[in-house]
Design a protein that fits this description.
It is built from 17 helices and 24 strands. By secondary structure, it is α/β, with parallel strands linked by helices. The longest helix is centred in the middle third of the chain and has 15 residues. The chain is globular and about 75 Å long. It binds ligand UAG, adenosine-5'-triphosphate (ATP), 2,6-diaminopimelic acid and magnesium ion. Ligand UAG binds next to helix 6. It is found in: Cytoplasm.
Length: about 475
Protein backbone atom coordinates (compact mmCIF):
# COMPACT_ATOMS: atom_id res chain seq x y z
CA UNK A 1 0.00 0.00 0.00
CA UNK A 2 1.16 3.56 -0.68
CA UNK A 3 2.31 5.45 2.42
CA UNK A 4 0.19 8.49 1.47
CA UNK A 5 -2.98 6.39 1.59
CA UNK A 6 -2.05 5.00 5.01
CA UNK A 7 -1.46 8.53 6.30
CA UNK A 8 -4.98 9.77 5.59
CA UNK A 9 -6.36 11.55 8.67
CA UNK A 10 -3.05 11.72 10.56
CA UNK A 11 -2.00 15.15 11.87
CA UNK A 12 1.69 15.35 10.93
CA UNK A 13 3.75 17.87 12.90
CA UNK A 14 7.03 17.36 11.00
CA UNK A 15 8.18 15.29 8.04
CA UNK A 16 11.59 14.32 6.64
CA UNK A 17 11.75 12.18 3.47
CA UNK A 18 9.32 11.06 0.78
CA UNK A 19 5.72 9.96 1.29
CA UNK A 20 5.25 8.43 -2.16
CA UNK A 21 6.55 4.98 -1.33
CA UNK A 22 5.12 1.47 -0.90
CA UNK A 23 4.95 0.07 2.62
CA UNK A 24 4.63 -3.65 3.35
CA UNK A 25 3.24 -3.65 6.90
CA UNK A 26 2.80 -1.61 10.08
CA UNK A 27 4.78 -2.68 13.16
CA UNK A 28 5.08 -1.31 16.71
CA UNK A 29 7.46 -3.94 18.10
CA UNK A 30 11.08 -3.69 16.90
CA UNK A 31 11.44 -7.45 17.23
CA UNK A 32 8.92 -7.96 14.41
CA UNK A 33 10.37 -5.51 11.89
CA UNK A 34 10.87 -6.72 8.28
CA UNK A 35 11.71 -5.02 4.96
CA UNK A 36 9.78 -1.84 4.08
CA UNK A 37 7.60 -1.72 7.16
CA UNK A 38 6.43 1.39 8.98
CA UNK A 39 7.77 1.31 12.55
CA UNK A 40 5.82 3.18 15.25
CA UNK A 41 7.95 4.38 18.17
CA UNK A 42 5.59 4.31 21.15
CA UNK A 43 6.31 5.44 24.71
CA UNK A 44 5.07 2.53 26.86
CA UNK A 45 4.90 1.71 30.54
CA UNK A 46 8.15 -0.29 30.52
CA UNK A 47 10.17 1.13 27.67
CA UNK A 48 10.26 3.87 25.03
CA UNK A 49 9.96 2.62 21.46
CA UNK A 50 12.10 5.57 20.28
CA UNK A 51 15.14 3.74 21.65
CA UNK A 52 14.67 1.00 19.04
CA UNK A 53 14.56 3.26 15.95
CA UNK A 54 18.18 2.57 14.80
CA UNK A 55 17.73 -1.20 15.20
CA UNK A 56 14.47 -1.16 13.19
CA UNK A 57 16.13 0.73 10.32
CA UNK A 58 18.92 -1.83 10.39
CA UNK A 59 16.26 -4.56 10.14
CA UNK A 60 14.57 -2.96 7.08
CA UNK A 61 12.05 -0.37 8.35
CA UNK A 62 11.68 2.35 5.69
CA UNK A 63 9.26 4.65 7.53
CA UNK A 64 9.43 5.75 11.14
CA UNK A 65 6.45 7.30 12.92
CA UNK A 66 7.66 8.98 16.09
CA UNK A 67 7.09 11.85 18.50
CA UNK A 68 10.58 13.35 18.02
CA UNK A 69 12.51 12.93 14.77
CA UNK A 70 16.03 11.71 15.67
CA UNK A 71 18.94 14.09 15.07
CA UNK A 72 20.93 11.34 13.34
CA UNK A 73 18.95 10.11 10.32
CA UNK A 74 19.19 7.65 7.46
CA UNK A 75 18.63 9.32 4.05
CA UNK A 76 16.67 6.37 2.68
CA UNK A 77 14.14 6.52 5.49
CA UNK A 78 11.00 8.65 5.82
CA UNK A 79 10.50 10.15 9.30
CA UNK A 80 7.01 11.25 10.28
CA UNK A 81 6.61 13.22 13.48
CA UNK A 82 3.22 13.17 15.20
CA UNK A 83 1.99 14.30 18.59
CA UNK A 84 1.17 10.76 19.69
CA UNK A 85 2.54 7.69 17.89
CA UNK A 86 -0.01 5.33 19.48
CA UNK A 87 -2.89 7.49 18.21
CA UNK A 88 -1.30 7.60 14.73
CA UNK A 89 -1.01 3.81 14.84
CA UNK A 90 -4.77 3.52 15.48
CA UNK A 91 -5.66 5.73 12.51
CA UNK A 92 -3.09 4.17 10.19
CA UNK A 93 -4.05 0.60 11.18
CA UNK A 94 -7.62 1.47 10.18
CA UNK A 95 -6.49 2.90 6.84
CA UNK A 96 -4.16 -0.02 6.16
CA UNK A 97 -7.06 -2.46 6.62
CA UNK A 98 -9.54 -0.44 4.52
CA UNK A 99 -11.37 1.17 7.47
CA UNK A 100 -13.34 -1.97 8.34
CA UNK A 101 -15.13 -0.43 11.35
CA UNK A 102 -17.06 1.89 9.00
CA UNK A 103 -18.32 -1.10 7.00
CA UNK A 104 -20.25 -2.70 9.84
CA UNK A 105 -22.05 -1.47 12.94
CA UNK A 106 -19.45 -1.43 15.71
CA UNK A 107 -20.74 -1.22 19.27
CA UNK A 108 -18.27 -0.67 22.13
CA UNK A 109 -19.00 -1.68 25.72
CA UNK A 110 -17.09 -0.16 28.60
CA UNK A 111 -17.28 -0.22 32.41
CA UNK A 112 -15.49 -1.94 35.29
CA UNK A 113 -17.69 -5.04 35.37
CA UNK A 114 -20.11 -6.60 32.92
CA UNK A 115 -18.38 -5.84 29.60
CA UNK A 116 -17.79 -9.48 28.63
CA UNK A 117 -21.27 -10.47 29.76
CA UNK A 118 -22.99 -7.70 27.79
CA UNK A 119 -20.84 -8.13 24.65
CA UNK A 120 -21.24 -11.92 24.67
CA UNK A 121 -25.00 -11.75 25.16
CA UNK A 122 -25.29 -9.22 22.31
CA UNK A 123 -23.20 -11.47 20.08
CA UNK A 124 -25.34 -14.54 20.88
CA UNK A 125 -28.57 -12.55 20.55
CA UNK A 126 -27.76 -11.09 17.13
CA UNK A 127 -26.52 -14.48 15.88
CA UNK A 128 -29.85 -16.01 16.89
CA UNK A 129 -31.71 -13.15 15.29
CA UNK A 130 -30.11 -14.31 12.05
CA UNK A 131 -27.25 -11.84 11.56
CA UNK A 132 -23.59 -12.38 10.79
CA UNK A 133 -21.77 -11.01 13.81
CA UNK A 134 -18.32 -10.44 15.30
CA UNK A 135 -17.31 -10.43 18.97
CA UNK A 136 -14.17 -8.99 20.57
CA UNK A 137 -13.96 -9.97 24.24
CA UNK A 138 -11.78 -11.03 27.15
CA UNK A 139 -12.77 -14.69 26.84
CA UNK A 140 -12.49 -15.08 23.07
CA UNK A 141 -13.07 -13.33 19.77
CA UNK A 142 -15.60 -14.60 17.26
CA UNK A 143 -16.31 -14.16 13.58
CA UNK A 144 -19.68 -15.87 13.38
CA UNK A 145 -18.92 -19.45 14.49
CA UNK A 146 -15.17 -19.14 14.10
CA UNK A 147 -13.33 -18.70 17.43
CA UNK A 148 -10.15 -16.66 17.57
CA UNK A 149 -8.28 -16.75 20.90
CA UNK A 150 -8.12 -13.46 22.80
CA UNK A 151 -4.90 -12.07 24.30
CA UNK A 152 -6.35 -8.84 25.71
CA UNK A 153 -9.82 -7.53 26.50
CA UNK A 154 -9.27 -4.96 23.72
CA UNK A 155 -6.56 -5.97 21.23
CA UNK A 156 -3.86 -3.63 19.89
CA UNK A 157 -4.85 -1.55 16.81
CA UNK A 158 -3.17 -3.90 14.33
CA UNK A 159 -4.82 -7.04 15.68
CA UNK A 160 -8.08 -5.16 16.16
CA UNK A 161 -8.35 -3.77 12.62
CA UNK A 162 -7.23 -7.04 11.09
CA UNK A 163 -9.98 -8.83 13.05
CA UNK A 164 -12.53 -6.23 11.94
CA UNK A 165 -11.39 -6.60 8.34
CA UNK A 166 -11.90 -10.39 8.59
CA UNK A 167 -15.38 -9.71 9.99
CA UNK A 168 -16.19 -7.46 7.02
CA UNK A 169 -14.85 -10.14 4.64
CA UNK A 170 -17.18 -12.64 6.37
CA UNK A 171 -20.11 -10.26 5.73
CA UNK A 172 -20.72 -9.40 9.40
CA UNK A 173 -23.25 -6.60 9.89
CA UNK A 174 -22.43 -6.07 13.57
CA UNK A 175 -19.45 -6.30 15.87
CA UNK A 176 -19.77 -6.09 19.65
CA UNK A 177 -16.51 -5.27 21.38
CA UNK A 178 -15.26 -4.61 24.89
CA UNK A 179 -13.46 -1.32 25.33
CA UNK A 180 -11.11 -1.45 28.31
CA UNK A 181 -9.90 1.73 29.99
CA UNK A 182 -6.30 0.71 29.09
CA UNK A 183 -7.37 0.62 25.43
CA UNK A 184 -8.80 4.15 25.60
CA UNK A 185 -5.70 5.63 27.26
CA UNK A 186 -3.32 3.74 24.95
CA UNK A 187 -5.32 4.82 21.85
CA UNK A 188 -6.04 1.23 20.80
CA UNK A 189 -9.49 2.38 19.57
CA UNK A 190 -8.28 5.54 17.78
CA UNK A 191 -9.63 5.85 14.25
CA UNK A 192 -12.52 3.40 14.72
CA UNK A 193 -16.07 4.36 13.65
CA UNK A 194 -18.46 3.36 16.42
CA UNK A 195 -22.22 3.17 15.88
CA UNK A 196 -22.85 2.95 19.60
CA UNK A 197 -21.30 2.91 23.06
CA UNK A 198 -22.60 1.24 26.23
CA UNK A 199 -21.57 1.98 29.84
CA UNK A 200 -22.09 -0.66 32.54
CA UNK A 201 -20.64 0.80 35.77
CA UNK A 202 -17.45 2.11 37.33
CA UNK A 203 -15.99 0.95 40.64
CA UNK A 204 -12.52 0.40 42.11
CA UNK A 205 -10.03 -1.27 39.75
CA UNK A 206 -6.82 -0.60 37.80
CA UNK A 207 -5.53 2.16 40.07
CA UNK A 208 -2.04 0.82 39.42
CA UNK A 209 -2.44 2.08 35.86
CA UNK A 210 -4.73 5.13 36.22
CA UNK A 211 -3.36 6.15 39.68
CA UNK A 212 -6.55 8.03 40.72
CA UNK A 213 -10.23 7.09 40.43
CA UNK A 214 -10.78 10.43 38.72
CA UNK A 215 -8.36 9.50 35.93
CA UNK A 216 -10.10 6.13 35.62
CA UNK A 217 -13.47 7.92 35.17
CA UNK A 218 -11.89 10.26 32.61
CA UNK A 219 -10.53 7.28 30.64
CA UNK A 220 -13.99 5.69 30.37
CA UNK A 221 -15.59 9.05 29.59
CA UNK A 222 -13.09 9.71 26.77
CA UNK A 223 -14.64 6.79 24.88
CA UNK A 224 -18.05 8.54 24.93
CA UNK A 225 -16.46 11.94 24.18
CA UNK A 226 -15.09 10.41 20.98
CA UNK A 227 -18.38 8.97 19.69
CA UNK A 228 -19.81 10.63 16.57
CA UNK A 229 -23.21 12.37 16.38
CA UNK A 230 -24.65 9.46 14.41
CA UNK A 231 -23.95 6.98 17.25
CA UNK A 232 -25.92 6.27 20.42
CA UNK A 233 -24.45 6.42 23.93
CA UNK A 234 -26.35 4.17 26.33
CA UNK A 235 -25.60 4.58 30.03
CA UNK A 236 -26.58 3.04 33.35
CA UNK A 237 -28.04 5.98 35.31
CA UNK A 238 -28.20 3.99 38.55
CA UNK A 239 -24.40 4.22 38.59
CA UNK A 240 -23.18 7.40 40.30
CA UNK A 241 -21.03 8.25 37.29
CA UNK A 242 -23.47 7.09 34.62
CA UNK A 243 -24.45 10.61 33.53
CA UNK A 244 -20.85 11.85 33.79
CA UNK A 245 -20.04 9.54 30.87
CA UNK A 246 -22.50 11.41 28.63
CA UNK A 247 -21.56 14.97 29.66
CA UNK A 248 -19.58 15.81 26.54
CA UNK A 249 -20.69 13.24 24.02
CA UNK A 250 -22.03 14.23 20.60
CA UNK A 251 -23.85 10.89 20.38
CA UNK A 252 -27.55 10.49 21.04
CA UNK A 253 -27.93 10.07 24.82
CA UNK A 254 -29.91 7.07 26.09
CA UNK A 255 -30.33 5.68 29.60
CA UNK A 256 -31.22 2.46 31.42
CA UNK A 257 -31.98 1.89 35.09
CA UNK A 258 -33.57 -0.39 37.64
CA UNK A 259 -34.04 2.24 40.35
CA UNK A 260 -35.29 5.32 38.48
CA UNK A 261 -37.03 6.38 35.32
CA UNK A 262 -34.96 5.91 32.17
CA UNK A 263 -35.34 5.17 28.46
CA UNK A 264 -35.11 1.46 29.30
CA UNK A 265 -36.35 0.17 32.64
CA UNK A 266 -36.50 -3.16 34.40
CA UNK A 267 -37.59 -4.47 37.80
CA UNK A 268 -36.40 -7.66 39.45
CA UNK A 269 -39.45 -9.74 40.34
CA UNK A 270 -37.50 -12.79 41.47
CA UNK A 271 -33.84 -13.75 41.68
CA UNK A 272 -33.10 -17.45 42.28
CA UNK A 273 -30.57 -20.13 41.37
CA UNK A 274 -32.80 -20.90 38.40
CA UNK A 275 -32.44 -17.41 36.99
CA UNK A 276 -33.99 -13.97 36.96
CA UNK A 277 -37.63 -13.04 36.61
CA UNK A 278 -37.80 -9.47 35.33
CA UNK A 279 -40.34 -6.93 34.31
CA UNK A 280 -38.46 -5.44 31.39
CA UNK A 281 -40.08 -2.44 29.73
CA UNK A 282 -43.50 -3.78 30.74
CA UNK A 283 -42.90 -7.36 29.60
CA UNK A 284 -42.74 -10.23 32.08
CA UNK A 285 -39.72 -12.39 31.19
CA UNK A 286 -37.64 -15.21 32.73
CA UNK A 287 -33.89 -15.27 32.07
CA UNK A 288 -31.31 -17.98 32.69
CA UNK A 289 -28.72 -15.60 34.15
CA UNK A 290 -28.44 -15.47 37.95
CA UNK A 291 -27.90 -12.40 40.14
CA UNK A 292 -29.49 -8.97 40.20
CA UNK A 293 -26.31 -7.44 38.70
CA UNK A 294 -27.20 -9.46 35.62
CA UNK A 295 -30.52 -7.58 35.45
CA UNK A 296 -28.37 -4.55 34.55
CA UNK A 297 -26.45 -6.53 31.94
CA UNK A 298 -29.66 -7.89 30.40
CA UNK A 299 -31.20 -4.43 30.36
CA UNK A 300 -28.11 -2.98 28.65
CA UNK A 301 -28.36 -5.73 26.02
CA UNK A 302 -32.08 -5.15 25.56
CA UNK A 303 -31.60 -1.36 25.25
CA UNK A 304 -28.82 -1.81 22.70
CA UNK A 305 -30.97 -4.18 20.64
CA UNK A 306 -33.84 -1.67 20.72
CA UNK A 307 -31.51 1.16 19.64
CA UNK A 308 -30.37 -1.10 16.80
CA UNK A 309 -34.05 -1.31 15.82
CA UNK A 310 -34.68 -4.98 16.53
CA UNK A 311 -38.12 -6.40 17.18
CA UNK A 312 -38.92 -6.32 20.93
CA UNK A 313 -40.69 -9.67 21.14
CA UNK A 314 -38.00 -11.54 19.17
CA UNK A 315 -35.27 -9.94 21.29
CA UNK A 316 -36.89 -10.90 24.60
CA UNK A 317 -37.75 -14.40 23.39
CA UNK A 318 -34.16 -15.12 22.34
CA UNK A 319 -32.62 -13.36 25.37
CA UNK A 320 -34.67 -15.43 27.76
CA UNK A 321 -33.07 -18.61 26.35
CA UNK A 322 -29.47 -17.41 26.47
CA UNK A 323 -26.80 -18.37 28.98
CA UNK A 324 -24.07 -15.88 29.94
CA UNK A 325 -20.34 -15.89 29.26
CA UNK A 326 -18.06 -18.73 30.37
CA UNK A 327 -16.85 -18.47 33.98
CA UNK A 328 -19.45 -15.89 35.00
CA UNK A 329 -21.62 -17.34 37.79
CA UNK A 330 -21.15 -20.79 36.28
CA UNK A 331 -22.08 -23.53 38.70
CA UNK A 332 -21.64 -27.24 39.21
CA UNK A 333 -23.29 -29.43 41.82
CA UNK A 334 -21.35 -32.29 43.46
CA UNK A 335 -22.78 -35.78 43.96
CA UNK A 336 -23.35 -34.81 47.65
CA UNK A 337 -25.14 -31.65 46.65
CA UNK A 338 -22.36 -29.15 47.31
CA UNK A 339 -22.80 -26.19 44.99
CA UNK A 340 -19.64 -24.84 43.37
CA UNK A 341 -19.73 -21.43 41.67
CA UNK A 342 -16.97 -20.27 39.33
CA UNK A 343 -16.98 -16.51 38.87
CA UNK A 344 -14.59 -13.98 37.34
CA UNK A 345 -15.14 -11.47 40.18
CA UNK A 346 -11.76 -9.74 40.46
CA UNK A 347 -12.84 -6.34 41.82
CA UNK A 348 -14.31 -5.48 45.26
CA UNK A 349 -17.66 -4.59 43.68
CA UNK A 350 -17.88 -7.82 41.69
CA UNK A 351 -17.01 -9.92 44.76
CA UNK A 352 -19.66 -8.06 46.76
CA UNK A 353 -22.28 -8.53 44.02
CA UNK A 354 -21.65 -12.21 43.60
CA UNK A 355 -21.67 -12.87 47.36
CA UNK A 356 -24.83 -10.76 47.79
CA UNK A 357 -26.48 -12.78 45.07
CA UNK A 358 -25.49 -15.98 46.87
CA UNK A 359 -26.84 -14.55 50.16
CA UNK A 360 -30.12 -13.62 48.51
CA UNK A 361 -30.75 -16.98 46.96
CA UNK A 362 -29.40 -19.34 49.62
CA UNK A 363 -32.04 -21.14 51.58
CA UNK A 364 -30.68 -20.45 55.06
CA UNK A 365 -28.42 -22.78 56.98
CA UNK A 366 -25.82 -23.66 54.37
CA UNK A 367 -22.28 -22.26 54.66
CA UNK A 368 -20.70 -20.07 52.01
CA UNK A 369 -16.99 -20.88 51.50
CA UNK A 370 -15.08 -18.44 49.32
CA UNK A 371 -11.73 -19.17 47.68
CA UNK A 372 -10.15 -15.94 46.51
CA UNK A 373 -6.84 -14.41 45.41
CA UNK A 374 -5.68 -11.20 43.74
CA UNK A 375 -3.64 -10.79 40.58
CA UNK A 376 0.03 -9.83 40.82
CA UNK A 377 1.39 -6.74 38.98
CA UNK A 378 -2.07 -5.20 39.25
CA UNK A 379 -3.83 -2.70 41.54
CA UNK A 380 -2.53 -3.41 45.07
CA UNK A 381 -5.12 -1.17 46.76
CA UNK A 382 -7.96 -3.54 45.89
CA UNK A 383 -6.36 -6.51 47.69
CA UNK A 384 -7.36 -5.78 51.35
CA UNK A 385 -10.79 -4.57 50.19
CA UNK A 386 -11.49 -7.76 48.23
CA UNK A 387 -10.46 -9.85 51.25
CA UNK A 388 -12.64 -7.77 53.56
CA UNK A 389 -15.69 -8.07 51.30
CA UNK A 390 -15.14 -11.81 50.96
CA UNK A 391 -14.94 -12.19 54.77
CA UNK A 392 -17.96 -9.97 55.44
CA UNK A 393 -20.19 -12.07 53.20
CA UNK A 394 -18.86 -15.61 53.65
CA UNK A 395 -18.77 -18.13 56.49
CA UNK A 396 -15.24 -19.26 55.58
CA UNK A 397 -12.66 -17.69 53.33
CA UNK A 398 -9.55 -19.28 51.88
CA UNK A 399 -7.10 -16.65 50.70
CA UNK A 400 -4.99 -18.03 47.89
CA UNK A 401 -3.17 -17.13 44.67
CA UNK A 402 -4.77 -15.79 41.49
CA UNK A 403 -2.17 -15.00 38.78
CA UNK A 404 0.89 -13.99 40.83
CA UNK A 405 2.67 -12.85 37.63
CA UNK A 406 6.08 -11.51 38.74
CA UNK A 407 5.14 -10.99 42.40
CA UNK A 408 5.72 -13.28 45.37
CA UNK A 409 2.31 -14.96 45.94
CA UNK A 410 2.84 -14.96 49.72
CA UNK A 411 3.25 -11.15 49.67
CA UNK A 412 -0.02 -10.76 47.73
CA UNK A 413 -1.81 -12.87 50.35
CA UNK A 414 -0.26 -10.74 53.11
CA UNK A 415 -1.63 -7.62 51.38
CA UNK A 416 -5.06 -9.28 51.37
CA UNK A 417 -4.78 -10.29 55.03
CA UNK A 418 -4.48 -6.59 55.96
CA UNK A 419 -8.17 -6.27 55.11
CA UNK A 420 -9.24 -9.08 57.44
CA UNK A 421 -10.58 -7.69 60.72
CA UNK A 422 -9.67 -9.43 64.01
CA UNK A 423 -13.18 -10.87 64.28
CA UNK A 424 -13.01 -12.22 60.74
CA UNK A 425 -9.54 -13.78 61.27
CA UNK A 426 -10.93 -16.97 62.69
CA UNK A 427 -12.89 -17.73 59.56
CA UNK A 428 -9.96 -17.35 57.18
CA UNK A 429 -7.21 -19.67 56.05
CA UNK A 430 -4.31 -18.80 53.78
CA UNK A 431 -3.14 -21.45 51.31
CA UNK A 432 -0.76 -20.27 48.56
CA UNK A 433 -1.39 -23.21 46.20
CA UNK A 434 -4.73 -22.55 44.48
CA UNK A 435 -5.39 -26.24 43.83
CA UNK A 436 -4.80 -27.05 47.50
CA UNK A 437 -7.09 -24.16 48.45
CA UNK A 438 -9.92 -25.50 46.27
CA UNK A 439 -9.31 -29.01 47.63
CA UNK A 440 -9.54 -27.71 51.21
CA UNK A 441 -12.78 -25.85 50.44
CA UNK A 442 -14.26 -29.09 49.09
CA UNK A 443 -13.23 -30.98 52.24
CA UNK A 444 -14.71 -28.29 54.50
CA UNK A 445 -18.03 -28.26 52.62
CA UNK A 446 -21.03 -30.24 53.73
CA UNK A 447 -24.03 -31.15 51.57
CA UNK A 448 -25.97 -28.02 50.67
CA UNK A 449 -22.98 -25.70 51.20
CA UNK A 450 -21.90 -23.23 48.53
CA UNK A 451 -18.29 -22.84 47.39
CA UNK A 452 -17.41 -19.69 45.46
CA UNK A 453 -14.20 -19.75 43.41
CA UNK A 454 -13.62 -16.09 42.64
CA UNK A 455 -11.30 -14.27 40.26
CA UNK A 456 -10.29 -16.58 37.45
CA UNK A 457 -13.57 -17.47 35.75
CA UNK A 458 -12.90 -18.76 32.22
CA UNK A 459 -9.09 -18.56 32.51
CA UNK A 460 -7.33 -21.80 31.63
CA UNK A 461 -3.97 -20.83 33.05
CA UNK A 462 -2.19 -19.51 36.09
CA UNK A 463 0.55 -17.02 35.26
CA UNK A 464 3.64 -17.37 37.44
CA UNK A 465 6.83 -15.46 36.56
CA UNK A 466 5.92 -15.02 32.91
CA UNK A 467 4.94 -18.68 32.41
CA UNK A 468 1.30 -19.65 31.94
CA UNK A 469 0.72 -23.06 33.55
CA UNK A 470 -2.47 -24.93 32.72
CA UNK A 471 -5.03 -24.22 35.44
CA UNK A 472 -8.79 -24.32 35.24
CA UNK A 473 -10.89 -23.60 38.36
CA UNK A 474 -13.84 -25.58 37.02
CA UNK A 475 -11.69 -28.59 36.09
CA UNK A 476 -10.09 -28.67 39.57
CA UNK A 477 -13.47 -28.29 41.26
CA UNK A 478 -15.13 -31.08 39.27
CA UNK A 479 -12.12 -33.35 39.92
CA UNK A 480 -12.33 -32.70 43.68
CA UNK A 481 -16.11 -33.13 43.72
CA UNK A 482 -15.70 -36.55 42.13
CA UNK A 483 -12.85 -37.53 44.47
CA UNK A 484 -14.86 -36.81 47.60
CA UNK A 485 -18.00 -38.50 46.29
C1 LIG B 1 0.03 -1.96 30.90
C2 LIG B 1 -0.36 -2.26 29.50
O1 LIG B 1 -1.50 -2.16 29.14
N1 LIG B 1 0.62 -2.67 28.71
C3 LIG B 1 0.39 -2.92 27.28
C4 LIG B 1 1.34 -2.05 26.48
O2 LIG B 1 2.64 -2.40 26.85
P1 LIG B 1 3.69 -1.34 27.40
O3 LIG B 1 3.13 0.04 27.37
O4 LIG B 1 4.18 -1.85 28.71
O5 LIG B 1 4.86 -1.48 26.34
P2 LIG B 1 6.41 -1.41 26.65
O6 LIG B 1 6.91 -2.77 26.93
O7 LIG B 1 6.68 -0.31 27.62
O8 LIG B 1 6.99 -0.99 25.22
C5 LIG B 1 6.76 0.30 24.64
C6 LIG B 1 6.84 0.15 23.15
O9 LIG B 1 8.15 -0.32 22.80
C7 LIG B 1 8.05 -1.45 21.97
N2 LIG B 1 9.20 -2.32 22.17
C8 LIG B 1 9.47 -2.86 23.38
C9 LIG B 1 10.54 -3.71 23.54
C10 LIG B 1 11.38 -4.01 22.43
O10 LIG B 1 12.37 -4.75 22.49
N3 LIG B 1 11.07 -3.44 21.24
C11 LIG B 1 10.00 -2.59 21.07
O11 LIG B 1 9.76 -2.12 19.98
C12 LIG B 1 6.73 -2.11 22.36
O12 LIG B 1 6.22 -2.90 21.31
C13 LIG B 1 5.85 -0.87 22.63
O13 LIG B 1 5.29 -0.41 21.42
O14 LIG B 1 1.19 -2.31 25.12
C14 LIG B 1 1.40 -3.68 24.75
C15 LIG B 1 1.23 -3.80 23.24
O15 LIG B 1 -0.04 -3.41 22.83
C16 LIG B 1 0.41 -4.58 25.47
O16 LIG B 1 0.62 -5.94 25.14
C17 LIG B 1 0.60 -4.39 26.96
O17 LIG B 1 -0.36 -5.16 27.61
C18 LIG B 1 0.12 -5.87 28.78
C19 LIG B 1 0.70 -7.22 28.35
C20 LIG B 1 -1.04 -6.09 29.74
O18 LIG B 1 -1.00 -6.96 30.57
N4 LIG B 1 -2.06 -5.28 29.68
C21 LIG B 1 -3.26 -5.39 30.53
C22 LIG B 1 -3.08 -4.61 31.83
C23 LIG B 1 -4.42 -4.81 29.75
O19 LIG B 1 -4.25 -4.15 28.74
N5 LIG B 1 -5.61 -5.11 30.23
C24 LIG B 1 -6.82 -4.60 29.60
C25 LIG B 1 -8.04 -5.10 30.36
C26 LIG B 1 -8.17 -4.49 31.69
C27 LIG B 1 -9.58 -4.74 32.24
O20 LIG B 1 -10.51 -3.98 31.91
O21 LIG B 1 -9.74 -5.66 33.05
C28 LIG B 1 -7.00 -5.19 28.20
O22 LIG B 1 -7.57 -4.50 27.33
O23 LIG B 1 -6.64 -6.36 28.01
N1 LIG C 1 -23.26 -5.38 35.80
C1 LIG C 1 -22.43 -5.83 36.73
N2 LIG C 1 -22.25 -5.14 37.89
C2 LIG C 1 -21.40 -5.56 38.83
N3 LIG C 1 -20.70 -6.72 38.76
C3 LIG C 1 -20.82 -7.46 37.64
C4 LIG C 1 -21.69 -7.06 36.57
N4 LIG C 1 -21.62 -7.97 35.60
C5 LIG C 1 -20.74 -8.89 36.01
N5 LIG C 1 -20.27 -8.61 37.25
C6 LIG C 1 -19.24 -9.33 38.04
O1 LIG C 1 -17.98 -9.04 37.41
C7 LIG C 1 -17.35 -10.23 36.93
C8 LIG C 1 -16.74 -9.98 35.58
O2 LIG C 1 -17.80 -9.83 34.64
P1 LIG C 1 -17.46 -9.57 33.12
O3 LIG C 1 -16.42 -10.53 32.71
O4 LIG C 1 -18.71 -9.51 32.35
O5 LIG C 1 -16.82 -8.10 33.26
P2 LIG C 1 -15.72 -7.37 32.40
O6 LIG C 1 -16.08 -5.94 32.51
O7 LIG C 1 -15.67 -7.93 31.05
O8 LIG C 1 -14.33 -7.67 33.14
P3 LIG C 1 -12.83 -7.40 32.52
O9 LIG C 1 -12.53 -5.97 32.88
O10 LIG C 1 -11.92 -8.29 33.24
O11 LIG C 1 -12.87 -7.63 31.06
C9 LIG C 1 -18.44 -11.28 36.90
O12 LIG C 1 -17.88 -12.56 37.06
C10 LIG C 1 -19.33 -10.83 38.05
O13 LIG C 1 -18.76 -11.26 39.26
N1 LIG D 1 -8.40 -7.94 32.70
C1 LIG D 1 -8.05 -8.09 34.09
C2 LIG D 1 -8.19 -9.51 34.44
C3 LIG D 1 -7.91 -9.85 35.89
C4 LIG D 1 -8.16 -11.29 36.15
C5 LIG D 1 -7.56 -11.82 37.39
N2 LIG D 1 -7.58 -13.25 37.29
C6 LIG D 1 -6.13 -11.32 37.61
O1 LIG D 1 -5.22 -11.96 37.09
O2 LIG D 1 -5.94 -10.32 38.30
C7 LIG D 1 -6.64 -7.56 34.32
O3 LIG D 1 -5.77 -7.82 33.51
O4 LIG D 1 -6.46 -6.86 35.31
MG1 LIG E 1 -14.09 -8.56 29.92
Amino acid sequence: MQLQEVLYGVAITNLVGVTSREVSALVFDSRLVAKDVVFFAIKGTLSDGHAFIPATIEAGASVIVCEVIPAVRDEQVTYIEVENSAAALGIMASNFNGNPSAKLQLIGITGTNGKTTIATLLFKLFRELGYKVGLISTVENHINDQVIPATHTTPNPLALNSLLQDMVAADCSYCFMEVSSHAVVQHRIEGLSFSGGVFSNITHDHLDFHVTFDNYIKAKKAFFDGLPKSAFALTNVDDKNGMVMLQNTKASKKTYALKQLADFNAKVIENSFNGLHLDIDGADVFFKLVGSFNAYNLLAVYGTAMLLEQDQLSVLTVLSRLTGAEGRFEYVVSPQNIIGIIDYAHTPDAVQNVLNTIQNIRKGTEQVITVIGCGGDRDKAKRPVMAQVACDWSDKVILTSDNPRTENPQTIIEDMEKGVSPTNKRKTLSIVDRKEAIKTACHLAKPGDIILLAGKGHEKYQEINGVRHHFDDKEVLVEQFNLIS
